[in-house]
Amino acid sequence: MKKRLFTIVLLCGIFSLVFLATVETLWSVSSYRAMRNNYKHQLQSILEEASWQYVVIDKYMEFGSVGRLHTLVGDQLTAAGISTEYVVEVLSSTDAEPIVLMAKGDKRVIDRPMSVDKSLSPIVLRLTVNDPHNDILSSMRNILLLQLLSILLLVAIFYYLVNTLFRAKTIEKIRQDLTHNITHELRTPIAAAYATTDLLLTSEQISEQKSLRDEYLGMTLKELKRLNNMVDEILRSSTDVGLALNLERCSLRSIVEDVRTMLSLKFQYAEIEWVIDVDEEIVIYADRFHLESSISALVDNGIKYNESRPKITISARVSKNHTTIVVSDNGVGIPYAEQRHIFEKFYRIPQGNRHDTKGYGLGLSYVKSVAKSHNGTIELSSKVGVGTSFYLTLPNYVTKKSTNS
């Protein structure tokens, strides 16, 4: 979906939700006012009915008749289904300020009074009851709850749709990056294997010396093996097939040295500063190829995502049950908001229009898969502009379950 169309759809959705919420609110307010006015008209009708039966024709009222009027009003309220405290009053309408002449009922029990009047000059009848606010809201409770739930449901659906659109947009961006970057990643071992094979065919000096020939054949085989691993990695990531481990006793220092040698050749231009703090006596029971590839992936990121001279520190901490390999760099760092996504398949931190750092977002996902297959863990700590440290922790023993992963 194009950016402009996506923006239009998003704004239309937001406008529709706001419009719906506004309409529902106005309808609720209108319904409340209508019910309140209807209640007041009902009280007016009750007072009208009672007054015409008990008001004396010559415009005066006896004290006893107020009690009878009070009783009749009570009967009328009960018949109408209205249960409330009420007061009936007779007021003088001849004075600037009406004076209560007679009253029946206790005004002290009236909560937020609501009154209706009936003018019978020179007197005014007044009926005062409790404000029906709470009763009206109680009668509207179910419909208000349904309105609220419908709005919340629509908001949830809208959020889901927007989130789906954003994910689709992200997936499309990932697909485009993957198409370009995976080609670059696969070309590297292909180019290396092609170059060494070409030298073997064209250089008599190399082809005639067994040691050189074996060295170049070994380089070709190693690059082809790495290419095969990349293809397997992509296929495995798309099908969620676990790693098949070939467990053996490995010298951790030897693995780290191989990683340093390989990446020093790959990034000759970078003038990498290496700090290796791994005891030569540390032996770990693991799949050497996958462990070396994992450490290589961590170091590779530290070199590529670096705006100064790379400094790579690799150390190891051995406890009773675990060995932790720490790979640290002085790179650009990983924003905190991105750290929880960094081990997801195909995920790459957005770089705007920058395309200088290639990759297809499987390196750290692969490292996590290797750690999980060994019954281990991978964690990180990072600060933007300072660098990142990865902690690859593997058990000093491996269960049968991990060998079949």
Could you please describe the fold and organization of this structure?
The chain is α+β, with helices and mostly antiparallel strands and 405 residues long. It has eleven helices and eleven strands. The strands form three sheets. Strands 6-8-9-11-10 form a five-stranded mixed sheet. A hairpin with a 6-residue loop joins strand 1 and strand 2. Helix 1 packs antiparallel against helix 2 (63-79) and helix 7 crosses helix 8. The two termini are 39 Å apart.
Structure at a glance:
By secondary structure, this protein is α+β, with helices and mostly antiparallel strands. It has helices spanning 3-54, 63-79, 133-139, 141-202, 204-208, 210-239, 252-266, 288-304, 336-339, 363-373, 400-403; strands spanning 86-92, 99-104, 113-120, 123-130, 247-251, 273-277, 283-287, 311-318, 322-328, 377-383, 387-395. Residues 352-360 and 399-405 have low confidence and may be disordered.
Give the SSE map.
Layout: H1 3-54, H2 63-79, E1 86-92, E2 99-104, E3 113-120, E4 123-130, H3 133-139, H4 141-202, H5 204-208, H6 210-239, E5 247-251, H7 252-266, E6 273-277, E7 283-287, H8 288-304, E8 311-318, E9 322-328, H9 336-339, H10 363-373, E10 377-383, E11 387-395, H11 400-403
Parallel strand pairs: 6-8
Antiparallel strand pairs: 1-2, 1-4, 3-4, 5-7, 8-9, 9-11, 10-11
Helix pairs in contact: 1-2, 1-4, 4-6, 7-8, 8-10
